[in-house]
Amino acid sequence: MFEKIKRILIGKPLPNEAEKTEKYGVLWGLPILSSDAISSVAYAGQEILYVLLPAIGFLAFKEISVVTTAIIILLFILMLSYRQTIENYPNGGGAFIVAKDNLGVLAGIVAGAALSVDYILTVAVSISSGVDQIVTALEFLKPYKIALCLFLVLFLMIGNLRGIRESSRIFGIPAYAFMFSILALIIGGYIKLKMGYVPPEPKINYSSHPVTLVLLLKAFASGCTALTGIEAVSNAVPNFKDPATKHAKTVLLLLSLIILVLFGGTTLLATHYHIVPTEGAMLVLMAQEIFGKSFMYYIVAATTFIILVFAANTAFSGFPMLVAVMAKEEFVPRQLSLKGDKLSYSNGIIILALVSALLIVAFNGNVTALIGLYAVGVFISFTLSQSGMFVRWLKNKGSHWHIKAFINGFGALTTFVVVIIIAITKFKEGAWIVVLLIPLLVFAMIKVKLHYIAVADQLRVTPEDKELLDVEHNIYRNRVIVPIESLNKASIRALRFAKTISDNVIAFNVSINEEQAKKLQERYKMLNCSIPLVIRYSPYRKILEPLLEYIKSEEYNYQKGDMITVIIPKFTVQRWWQKILHNHTWLFIEKELLKHKHIVVSVMPLQLKDDDVVLKKKNKPLWKILEED
User: Fold this and answer.
1) At the N or C end, where does the chain have fewer CB atoms within 10 A?
2) Phi, psi angle pair for 580, to nearest 5°
3) What is d(CA 604, CA 569) in angstroms, rounded to the nearest whole number?
4) Which UniProt keywords apply (predicted)?
5) How is residue 236 annotated by DSSP?
6) How far, CA to CA in Å, does 280 sit from each of 259, 284, 359?
């Protein structure tokens, strides 16, 4: 039943060879990776007004243009900086890889943790804001706001689990529709003003309070949410068709120009129409003022709602790629680096959806409350990424390195100042949660990495270990298969046990790529083992099916009445949280094999020592261990 539902929702699995067809070019890469940044147009301007209006009243409509100009300047600094990141780090990972390579392991972990938090908040903020837009236009939906939010998170999760190509079609067209509708709003608004229209006076005070630097900085911090999502392009370079670097840089440039026009245009328009966002969503109120309750009003409301919901799709593209890179570096569970049926990082997609849904419920879908958490993480990653690139130019130099170092250095300095501004001005509004959460995530990632180091140290096979297989044994009348994922002490122990119960033993491996198979063959030859190794390629990343097919094949020559013992190697860890970090594929294999009456399943455990015991034997500081690994 579960498998049928899965196929209906996600579709048929794709083979590894289909990966090239799952990449996108500029046309579809632009809406998928820019929808987060573009959607900020819907709430960045109104968040600036939320800060300015209560303090200085009508003067807010004058000062918003100053704040907007500063944000747009910062946008182009980031655009130039990230173009260099794309060119030098085409394999994705963005701030995490840049910081780790140039500033050290700790800086990389901090960048990865900060960016992960930002992606999660992107989903929560975008969907909550999108639902805000629609309940402003359709008030009867207000009681169902949280339910709508959760439904949309589920919808995005399923859409992305269907694969990169399908999701780009599903989520790309609405992004273009939003761009054109907001462009029509800006053009229509200025034409109406030129024709002599005088907007009504807003019901606010003409405050005599002074415009202070602290107030402008607070408004700037709120408006900087318009820049979240800029980094997504550099994180997802491997998802582009060749030449991937060129396509990614083109998308980043187009994204910056679009934000300039849409964000700059709508905030300047707000200064003329004197929109007060406390009465509803700013863009929807502006559309009502310009178009009335006409067809275009509903088009703006609908496309704004859709782009805000689909803006979360940028996070669904970036977060799984980021955590997959971190999983390969072993700072998060390895399962996050595995691709699902549709060649997407499905585990990362599911985790992002679950955590974002929890945040929406916890904050009751309140955009302003979530915004307080939003920009801290992304600007920390901006700062570390640009600092890393600056150090890279100082070390490696190269052509025009002075100019490149200046761009990244200035970008690092600017974003660092913004981090301080946001952390201070938004601390009481919720930024304290992120300031506390990022160190906790960094600590957890370090513990995960140290655990994997300790496990690898205990499982590592050396040439001397071939003696473990030299065991005298009695001959049993059963046939034995030992499935091995890799060559380690757990699999050696299982093979050793197999020789004691039969002289008809096969080591069986399922590989999802040729490189993995080749490495295993080379390492297996090192043992000079008499047990033959059989490797089967699985284009759909299935584990059990190739094993059963092999047993039924003529090559294995299974005869009726034969008993087959499958010995599954397994290692056990000491602590509960460490169990989460490892695959438990053996449980599934055991369950399915036991359905066959001629197959006996045996689990051969290897009990590992506690991480601290193994790491202490290295007699080195923890940071030295991390750096050397």
Assistant:
1) N
2) -65, -25
3) 5
4) Membrane, Transmembrane, Transmembrane helix
5) T
6) 22, 8, 23
Question: How far is Cα 421 from Cα 225, in angstroms, rounded to an integer?
Answer: 13
| Distance in angstroms (rounded) separating the CA atoms of residues 297 and 464 | 76
Distances (CA, A) of 433 to 226, 369, 374, 428, 441: 21, 11, 10, 9, 12
H-only helix segments in 329-345: none
DSSP 596: S
Q: Whole-prediction pTM value? A: 0.73
In terms of DSSP H, where are the helices of 195-334?
A: 213-223, 232-235, 244-273, 282-291, 295-328
Q: How far apart are CA 117 and CA 618, in angstroms?
A: 33
Sign of the alpha-carbon dihedral angle for 295, 299, 300, 302: positive
Q: Which of 501, 481, 484, 466 is nearest to 569 (CA)?
A: 484
Q: 163: exposed, middle or buried (C-beta count within 10 Å: 0-12, 13-18, 19+)?
A: buried
Q: What are the mean pLDDT values of the chain's consecutive 10-residue runs (629 residues total)?
A: 58 60 74 76 79 78 84 84 83 80 90 86 80 75 86 85 65 82 90 84 65 80 75 77 85 87 86 75 83 86 79 80 87 83 76 90 76 72 88 85 86 84 74 81 92 88 67 58 88 90 88 84 85 86 82 78 86 85 79 83 88 84 78
Q: Name the CA dihedral angle for 345, 347, 348, 349, rounded to a multiple of 10 degrees.
A: 80
Per DSSP, which regions of 525-584 are E strands? Answer: 533-537, 564-572
- Which pLDDT score, from 0 to 100, does residue 47 have? 79
Provide the residue count of the chain: 629
DSSP state of 243: S
Please calculate the CA angle 26-32-37 and round it to the nearest 5 degrees. Answer: 105
Task: Report residue 155 CA to chain centroid gap.
Answer: 17
Tell me if residue 541 falls in helix, strand or coil: coil
Residue 372 confidence (pLDDT): 60
Q: Which of 293, 122, 277, 264 is nearest to 182 (CA)?
A: 264
Does 210 sit behind a cis peptide bond, omega within 30 degrees of 0 on the bond before it?
no
Cα 105 to Cα 98: distance, rounded to the nearest angstrom: 10
Dist. CA 333–CA 194, nearest whole Å = 59
Q: Classify domain 1-13+21-452 by CATH architecture.
A: Up-down Bundle (1.20)
Whether 474-628 and 1-13+21-452 are alike in CATH topology: the answer is no
Please report the sign of the dihedral spanned by the C-alpha atoms of residue 284, residue 285, residue 288, residue 290.
negative
The rounded distance, in Å, linking the Cα atoms of 346 and 321 is: 10
Domain boundaries, the chain: 1-13+21-452, 474-628
In three-state secondary structure terms, 329 is coil
Instruction: Note the pLDDT of residue 444.
Output: 92
Question: What CATH topology corresponds to 474-628?
Answer: Rossmann fold (3.40.50)
Unique residue bearing structure tokens 């840049």: 98
